[in-house]
Amino acid sequence: MDNFNFYSPTEFVFGKDRENECGNYVKKYDGKKVLIHYGGGSVIRSGLLDRVKNSLDSCGIEYVELGGVKPNPRDTKIYEGIELCRKENVDFILSVGGGSCIDSAKGIAIGALYDGDFWDFYGTGKNVEKALPIGTVLTIAAAGSEGSGASVVTKEDGMLKRDVGSDLLRPRFSILNPALTCTLPAYQTACGTTDIMAHVFERYFTNTNEVEITDRLCEAVLLTMIKETPRVLENPDNYEARANIMWAGTVAHNDIVGVGRSQDWNSHGIEHELSGLYDCAHGAGLAVIMPAWMEYVMNHNIMRFAQMAVRIWGIPMNFENPEYTAKAGITAFRRFLHDIGMPINFEELGAKEEDIPMLVKNLGIGSGKRSGFVELDANDVTEIYKIAAHAQI
Question: Listing from the earlier edge strand, what are the strands of the sheet with 173-176?
Answer without folding.
Answer: 11-14, 173-176, 134-138, 92-97, 33-38, 62-66
